[in-house]
Model the fold of this input.
Amino acid sequence: MKKIFLIGWKDLVLAFRDRAGLILMLLAPFALTLGLGFVTGGFTQSNSTGLSSVPVALVNLDEGELGKGLVDLFSSTELAGLVEPESYPDPAAARLLVDKDAVAAAVIIPAGFSASVIPDASGGVSAPVSIELYTSPSRPNSAGIIQSIVTRYLNRVEMGRIGGQVTVGQLVASGRIQPQLAAEVGAEIGKKQAQNEEAFTSIRLKGEEGEATPQFNILAYMAPGMALMFLMFTVSNGGRTLLVEKTQGTLPRLLIAPVTSSQVLLGKMFGIFLTGTAQVLILIMASTIIFSLKWGNPLAVLLLVLAAVTGAVGWGMLLTALVKTPGQASSIGTAVMLTFGILGGSFFDITMMPRWMQAASRITPNSWGIDGFTALAAGGGVASILPDIAGLLVMGAALFGISLVLFKRRGVLQG
Amino acid sequence: MAAILEVHQLVKKYGEKTAVNEISFEILESEIFSLLGPNGAGKTTTISVLSTLLAPTAGDAVIGGHSVIKEPMAVRRLIGVVPQDIALYEELTARENLSFWGQMYNLSGKELNTRIDQVLEQVGLSSHAKERIRTFSGGMKRRVNIGVGLLHKPRLLFMDEPTVGIDPQSRRAILDSVKELNRNGMTVLYTTHYMEEAQELSHRVGIIDHGDLIALGTQAELTSQVGEYESLQLELGEMDDAVGLAETLRKVEGVAQANVVDHNVILVTTSTEKVLAPAVSCATERNIKIHSVTIQEPNLEAVFLHLTGRALRD
Done:
């Protein structure tokens, strides 16, 4: 075990003493993130999302306060930089706009929405209705933003409804209002809640205060994308060092020391793992300090980094097992890095691509990693990234197993 | 004296090509044994098999009572290897390299540090301990390369052409250090294609060519194979027809062999006095100017020439 650690630590030291390697490991992803941040407006205003405004069609068939409240929310200053709402009278027309990709989503508020929530004078509510969210499959991120706004609003309405019931119940129980006035007071509370943003805040006293829709920052997507893409460089370069050591004679020298070939291989893997982990953690820390980027729950981020590096190391080992020379490892490694960068979503949202391409992207650590980092940046915890972690670990283990077979078959660990 | 290494009918093939062909020899404790042969003779392959890097195709070797096939780890603990190429990490310092390799040989703590200091002193690089290998000259790298092989005080040290490509001063230092190590009791298997090195260092020599061990013994035993033969070396100009002259001289009485090495014609003869005059005469007839004439007593070069018809540098 000690020798495995020593071989790995030696490789980590060598990686960080290689100036050219450091440029590609750390400076390049940082510079690309910085450049893309400027290009996409990630550094313009503090409240900017870096995305152009999301066009959304609103159809309000509700005659009550809640429907109006949702339309007002989309037009509020809070969302001014994020969405570009347009009202339409006809649901079919709104859906057509989505089909034509003219808008990212259509929000159709049905008639009777308010009445289904706010009790009438008799204390009753009408049958439940559903707000229809009709989204464009070609704009998943934009659709996701609209969905989160609507969901947030509905959550507030629901909380307001429950809060209203509790409030009225307490007023009746304390004798401050007569039971026969309960329905009227309840309706009034409901209306005020629909009209007044502050009212939501007062209702959210039950442990909900302060919870806000996470701000979507384009850098939160780009920085992990670049980090993961250049992680692939690090692992392919790490695998290349095995072949370099073979040609330079240090690998044969290791293999005639009292060290088993398994220890050498695991040591090399451990070195790549350490280097990759150090690289991604440095990039995360640097982007946190310089870009004020919020990566999310630190423990979850660390777990995801370790899993992503495991998956990437698997690819690095497979690549090393398949090529014959350090030169081949460099050129194929670069090709794999770029291909995985594109396929895995490091440059653009892969969900905009055809389904087969989305499926293919799952062979890349980039795809799983970006999914996980995006979830964490959006406020998710460890539980939200468990599928990503599992996917990456399975990927790493499977690729390592295949690599081992290839190493043995090709006699890479022989003189 | 007991044998520390016994090689039995060792064969190593790469596909159809036989690199080492049924060689057998032994090395005694505290002996310097040289494997002498031209490039491609099978020296490095032999060392690779003996050091457990390559598995033999047939045969076996036993080092300190352990088979290289059955007990490779036990063998590795007994041997030190100085490979032909510099096998060091260029971006680590000399001390870091020695520390890493020492730990691979199970040294640690105070013992490791003490051995690193001793080895650095031994190879004359104590003052360069904290400098990266990348900044070293070829000779300095060679010395660290040797130092790595000595760290764990091996019973048997394999040195595979350790003086290739270095300046005469460093070469001298390495040869002296090999002799010093041997004086302190270390057994050395030394491979070289330099006849002078084998002559200077070795108690016994094995001559290897095309994978075959063609001669084995002390220098006296080997040169006696050449018997009364001496060699006469005629140095010609670059443009002169050395091959044509050698062909002519083969017909001269008393010339056993006439070979061309670089721009030299080397004659193996029983009487240099008898063939010198006809040789000069033949050269003159062909308008060839002889720049120098060197007469050599029987040596390992002559032995190799005698056995193979080729010079060691061919």
